[in-house]
Amino acid sequence: MDNSKIIEALDRDPLAQAQSAADQIAKITKKLSHQVALVLGSGWISAADSLGKPTHEFSATELPGFINPTVAGHGGKIRSYDLNTDGKITSVLVFLGRTHFYEGLGMNAVCHSVRTAVKAGCKSIVLTNAAGGINRDYKVGQPVLIRDHISLTAASPLSGANFVDLTDLYSKDLRNIVKQSDSQLSEGVYVHWRGPTYETPAEINMMRTVGADLVGMSTVPEAIAAHALGAKVLAISLVTNAAAGVTGEKLDHAEVIAAGKAAATRIGDLLAKVLPKL
Ligand code: HPA
Q1: Separation of CA 103 and ligand 1 centre (Å)
Q2: Total domain count for the chain?
Q3: Is 149 one of the catalytic residues?
Q4: Is the dihedral angle over the CA atoms 43, 268, 38, 83 positive or is it negative?
Q5: Residue 226 pLDDT more than 70?
Q6: pLDDT, tens digit, for every residue of 25-75?
Q7: Active site residue 186
Q8: Domain with 126 in it: what CATH number?
């Protein structure tokens, strides 16, 4: 099916498409349900290697509602893992790559992975991303737990009289579980920037003034969509660069991807430890 037909079906009934995709995952994996989902953003993909060997890997496009990702470094594959902790199996769905709002395909395309994960049974959704560091204390290669966000896109994945509370969007319980494994982790406020341009130095100054620590082009719509369906959300940014104007260096997409790759193993090990506990 071409992308415009896929988007049309998604926009008509996003939750029905997510249910169909979840049914297809159950068929492919022969697992009635999964418990945790992990969305790996730019440069994070090799972090999945720390999870061991997946039981299944398939292209997202084998499922209803998924369009081909368009950005270099974003994979478009889905894996299923059975993580064994002391004999207890946790089935984890891993999405390698995502659709971004800046691709112009609409919020339902952006949120289809997490909605599919929730329909597949996932009660905890882990979102990862590459972000620019606005906070001057952050170092390139550092993971930061998102504790709250500021949306500068003025776009929501929800419509209608759907007044969802967002006070604990980035679950404090889940953040505390991660911090038990790595007490050094910082927490920060993430700004969702539409992109695809990076920010101007003036925009970064504005963001810092209003309390932001990190900026990126993803995660926020997915977090809201997952939360609205009752899942708990954990979100982790990898600082891949100092945000515009912080060091005076120009921003480069290839460098963002490379910084993500360099830090992926450390972060993968952390994920492997915490996913079964969520
Ligand atoms: N700005 C926006 N998105 C990003 C950045 C940035 O500096 N780095 C990685 N994703």
Answers
A1: 15
A2: 1
A3: no
A4: positive
A5: yes
A6: 999 999 999 999 999 986 677 888 889 999 999 999 999 999 865 555 455
A7: no
A8: 3.40.50.1580
Measured between alpha carbons, how far is 216 from 190 in angstroms, rounded to an integer? 7
If you ran DSSP here, which 8-state letter would residue 34 be given?
-
Give CA–CA dist 182/238, Å, rounded: 15
Diameter over CA atoms, the chain: 53
Mean pLDDT of 100-104: 93
- List the catalytic residue out of 16, 20, 151, 253: 253
| Cβ neighbours for 91, distance < 8 A, ≥ 6 positions apart | 29, 31, 33, 34, 35, 36, 80, 81, 82, 83
**Of 168, 151, 170, nearest to 215 (Cα)?**
151
Pocket test for ligand 1, best of 151, 217, 219 (most atoms within 8 A of CB): 217
Residue type, 264: A
Global confidence as pTM = 0.95
| All residues at 6 or more sequence positions from 4 whose CB lies less than 8 Å from its CB, including other chains | none
* Pocket, ligand 1, Cβ cutoff 6 A: 130-132, 193, 198-199, 215-217, 240-241, 243, 251, 256
Weakest mean pLDDT among 83-87, 105-109, 113-117, 120-124: 83-87
Among this protein's residues, is 112 annotated catalytic? no
Tell whether the torsion through CA atoms of 44, 253, 98 and 56 is positive or negative. negative
Question: 3-state class of 85 per DSSP?
Answer: strand
The predicted-structure confidence for 187-207, as pLDDT tens digits, reads as follows: 999 999 999 999 999 999 999
